[in-house]
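Hey, I was hoping to borrow your eyes for a little while. I've been staring at a protein lately and its backbone has me curious. You're getting the sequence in one-letter code plus the fold written as tokens. Would you mind checking whether the tokens look sensible for this chain? Here's the protein in full, and shout if anything looks odd to you:
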Amino acid sequence: MSLVWQVDFYRSPQRDAAGQVLWELLICDATGDFEYLATCPQSQANSSWLTEKLKLASAENLPDVIQVFRPQSLSLITVAGNNLGINVEATRRTLSLKKLLQEKQYPLVIDQPPPVPLPENLWGEEWRFANISAGDLVDEFTERPIPFLQMPEFLQPINLGLASNVPVPGTIIYGGKQSLRLARWLQEAKPASLNYIAGAPDGLILEADLADRWILATFENSEVTAAAQIYEQRKQVSHGLHFLLLQPDDSGVTYTGFWLLQDEKYYLC
């Protein structure tokens, strides 16, 4: 079994006795059984210092993977990881680390850029909201040959404590001839959540990678808006769990991609 660390390296709210800005390295594992903390003045906050501290923290048992959620930390940690032969993964799913930072009352906010439209060559033909009961969700998609399938075990309804009759909301896109191309793009984009945002017009915003935001759809139809509001209400019952399903058409015979998602505000509360 691979050893995975969750790592943050960022400016600390604390300062040293001389008033200098400190940078803090915080390491933990997914279980919270292992923690490591080190600080340095901003003048020493570089990949060389970070490499040495990672070696020191490991006690000769280096991790196989380092997970990083903060875009500002990624480049330095990647260099340090390369120095030590450790794979570095950019992901928002660093729950143990974020909870540690919350307990320390350290900033977790990531600057969010304005959402940008999906490239025209990826547009599907239609889309709609849907829901599947929590008890049927896993079997419905794991038993089908789906080229792009993202269903992490920790997001499966049973592991979130959801009753089998809870409706899990989702969005279905009928991609037509662009279905496979869109699925490849989505897989590379690393979907995290898909949220309804009220506005003029209303929209569906895909949160992806560490801080990317994409406009998947816009609408001004009152019936669609009402369905979008129900979609968000169902998320409150499903602990933020929802899905994105990509099909070439509405026949239900072939699926191109399926992504199980969760709003971060639910798993950090």
